Amino acid sequence: MSSPDMLLDVLRAELRAAGITYKMLADRIAMSESSIKRMFGQKDMTLSRLAQICQAAGIAMEDVLRRAADARPQADTLTLVQENALVANPRLLLVAICCLGHWSLEQMVETYRLTEPECIGLLVELDRLGVIELKPLNRYTLRVSNAFRWLPDGPVQRFFRAHVVEDYFAGPFDGAGETLMCLPARLSHASAAELSEKIHQLAAELARMHRNDRRLPPRERDGFTLLVGFRSWEFSAFTALRR
């Protein structure tokens, strides 16, 4: 992603965080809403226009420039070496998953039987592996993108299948916001590819909500896990009954 693209993405995120819509912004700087949308869509904005928008929105232009400068391309997956290191130490995997959920050190220590020095040591190990970048005061930033996913059939997925899936499906799925569906269908390959793309869109939407809800107090958020699988498959017991 180029620097102008990153700059406008950061500005768009800041406007969203401030609750400012394109229409509201258009009214404040005396432009049409369509012109605002076109300016962001074409990623064409002068520095003077950037300053005007920041001033109208009450956003520090210096913060936008700094965030864009600090941003860097991030990986959508870890490497095989990184995932092997995580599954070799369940506590390291736990802290890695907490980091993916943007937990603070204090939240990890308060929630799990981890001492503060132990948790800091695990954060240091995640920094060494390149999963996070550890900052002063034990804060961190992720080195993976919002579209992050585990390697297909990689060490973490295999670990989850062996140790997590049964526990996950043991629940009744009857809580607020919970659902469980198993829907068989006969589809063409084109339809299957279309649905697979929609599943990726759903994952992106989950990432967006996760990112936006980080602004809420911890007491207003709960841990949810989306587990999605889609493949050509028949239950082996049913296959055994085929003629």
From TrEMBL:
InterPro entries: Cro/C1-type_HTH (IPR001387), Lambda_DNA-bd_dom_sf (IPR010982)
Superkingdom field: Bacteria
Pfam families cross-referenced by the UniProt entry: HTH_26
Domain HTH cro/C1-type: 10-64
CDD domains in UniProt: HTH_XRE
Protein name: Helix-turn-helix domain-containing protein
Organism: Telluria antibiotica
